[in-house]
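Hi everyone, sorry if this is the wrong subforum. Our group has a chain we'd like a structural model of before ordering constructs, and none of us has done structure prediction before. Sequence below.
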Amino acid sequence: MVKNIFIVLLSLILSAASLMIVHYYSLTQELLFDLSETRTRLSESITQLEQTVLSLSQTQLSLSQTQTQLTQKTTELALVGAQLRLTSTELSSAKNELTSLKTRYDQLAVTAESNKFFFYYVKSTQQYGVDQLAAFLNQGRWARSYEANVFDCSEMSAYLERDLENAGFHTLIAIGKSPDGSGQGHAWLLAEASQGHYMPVEATAHSVVYWSTPYFGNYFKYDRTFETIQEALTYNSSDYDWWKP
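Answer:
Right subforum, don't worry. Here is the predicted structure as tokens:
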């Protein structure tokens, strides 16, 4: 009887032990499986970490190369800056030289302009008298024909003004409305026949205008007069240049 009870108890103990072994085995397998998955994930993480480290290394190399390039560019820019400063200095020097040359040119231009007509007038003894004036004018006639806008009253007046001045007659070039009342623009001369008194000279006719002329007084109703050829050319550079064809 006791033996049977012992056998039953032993059998129960063995069954319980077997169940516990199966249970623990199952737990062990699950732990091993979890451990395997954890190891796999860890391996993947290590691989990703290695890739990240490699990428960082490549990035660091790229940054190092970029830094080297930047250093080279900085050096090049510094050289360019030095060249630009040198060029700026040269340009400043050239500008100063150009300004100096321009000033010199302007001075020479003024001198040339003032000397342009140095031999235009010849100093002569002052002449007076209407008869003397008429006699001088009667000595010559125009060899060149009147040509509007080429060799007309203005060029003829400028030409004859020079002849009269060089003969000793103080002469002005006058411009204004034509004294004959036509209303057209005209140029003529006023020659000093006696001190402070002038006689009109019609340059186109190469003759004195006498008092008997109906519109004699209109020759003194001018818009303006020119003392010299320079004044006339300053007023209009193309109307009094009789020497040009």
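For your construct planning: The first helix runs from residue 2 to 115. The first strand starts at residue 171 and ends at 177.
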